[in-house]
């Protein structure tokens, strides 16, 4: 599981893309493999040897992973963008309460 994910990421990274799209990059991995894949994603997103910085876009239901890896969160529900915020703002309950109630319910675990 984790080894296959790392190989797939390395292959994509070798092409020096400007944009890398990932869907649940650590789904179904054990905690050790998740940490390794997250470390690789962090390395990829901060690679100073790339001529242009790469944008990493990933879908995740893992809020801890979002806090660790994301700089910005776009919250989608029903095919609509309901929030587009810097990661720290997305996890700010007071900010969400007044402006993004659906996102607040998701972060609180009150919505699926």
Automatic annotation (TrEMBL):
<dbReference type="InterPro" id="IPR003439">
    <property type="entry name" value="ABC_transporter-like_ATP-bd"/>
</dbReference>
<dbReference type="GO" id="GO:0016887">
    <property type="term" value="F:ATP hydrolysis activity"/>
</dbReference>
<feature type="domain" description="ABC transporter">
    <location>
        <begin position="1"/>
        <end position="27"/>
    </location>
</feature>
<keyword id="KW-0067">ATP-binding</keyword>
<dbReference type="Pfam" id="PF00005">
    <property type="entry name" value="ABC_tran"/>
</dbReference>
<protein>
    <submittedName>
        <fullName>ATP-binding cassette domain-containing protein</fullName>
    </submittedName>
</protein>
<dbReference type="InterPro" id="IPR050334">
    <property type="entry name" value="Molybdenum_import_ModC"/>
</dbReference>
<keyword id="KW-0547">Nucleotide-binding</keyword>
<dbReference type="InterPro" id="IPR027417">
    <property type="entry name" value="P-loop_NTPase"/>
</dbReference>
<dbReference type="GO" id="GO:0005524">
    <property type="term" value="F:ATP binding"/>
</dbReference>
